[in-house]
Structures are given as structure tokens and as C-alpha cells.
Design a protein that fits this description.
CATH topology of one domain: TolA/TonB C-terminal domain
Radius of gyration: 67 Å
CATH class of one domain: Alpha Beta
CATH architecture of one domain: 2-Layer Sandwich
Largest sheet: 4 strands, mixed
Helix content: 25-40%
Structural class: alpha+beta
Oligomer: single chain
Shape: rod-shaped
Number of strands: 6
Number of helices: 7
Strand order of the largest sheet: 1-6-2-3
Amino acid sequence: MCASLGFVILAFEWKSADEPSIIITSDLTVQEELLNIPPTQHEPPKPPAIIQPQVIEVPDEEEIEEDVKVIIDISEVEHEEAYTPIVLEPKVEEVSDEIFVIVETRPEFPGGDTELMKFLFENLKYPSAARRMGVEGKVFVSMVVEKDGTITNPTVMRGFDTSCDNEALRVMGLMPKWIPGKQRGKPVRVKVSFPITFKMGN
């Protein structure tokens, strides 16, 4: 075995005559020295810098209250636009031309119903044609009492004889002004209707 090892060593040395020599040895001490790598020195990390908090001096509350001053500047108020008060105008009620049938205060003939009957009796004339024929009946008439009491729009609602109907309309045109009707304390137009009776006496 020694001869073989020596032969190997010779052959290796001969083959490497022209090349740089590499010595293989069994000396572990030399090998350890060759492989001995100095340890890498690692510097310990530097501790983070400590930031010192900035101390802000705050004066005492009492001192602040003593130093506070209230300043009222009236120059801004003086230069503001003048205030214009809102004036509420009284509401003007629209004049109503509505014709009422039922009102709080109804129209009235001057002197009341008694004077109305008297007026009709004195002014109605029994038509001669109807009297000769013995025609009797009632004429239902209507009219509008205006706000000033005048009579407008006389109409025969239901009649029984043409001559008697016309006579009723004629007498209505002779009527004086009535006392106007009122609604909520104000004069209004009111429609009035009533019958006029034509009857021959015995």
C-alpha cells in the first residue's frame, strides 16, 4: 500500500512539473491554519436616537384671563346697509259679485213685509183679459237686491197667465230700494223670490 501511495505521489508530481505545485498532505494542523478564517466583526446596531420632547410653556389660566381683552368695533355696523323694515300691507278683500241665496242678514223691503204687501196691493192691476176670463193664480217671481238696495234682474220663475206675469214684472220695476242683505257685516248681492197672488174678490 505504501508503494502504491508513493507511486501516486510521484505520478502526481511528474504530471505537475510544468504547472504550479499543489501539495497534498495529511497534516491537519496546516489545513486548519489554511482554513482558519478570522471571524467577521459585526458592529452592534446603534440605539435609536431619543428625541427630546419640546416643552412649551403654557401660562396659567388666570394669566390668560387677565391678558384677554374684548374689543367691540362698531365701525362695521356703521357701514352696514340700513335695515329696511318689512311693512305688511293690509289685505284688500276682493269685491265679490257672487249672488247669495242665504245670508246672515236678509234684504228687506223698507218697512218690512207689511209694507211690501201694501205696496203690491196698491200698485198691482188685475189684467182685464184675465179678469174677464176669471183667471186666478200665483206668479212666482225672483229678483236680485244689489249691494246698494236697487232691484235688478226681475224674472218670472213660474207663471200661470201671460198678462198676469207681465203685470208682476211691471210692479217689480216700480219698487223702491230695499235694505241690502249682509254677509259677515258687509252688503252683498242677494237673490229674493216670492209669489204674487192674483185673485178676484167676491
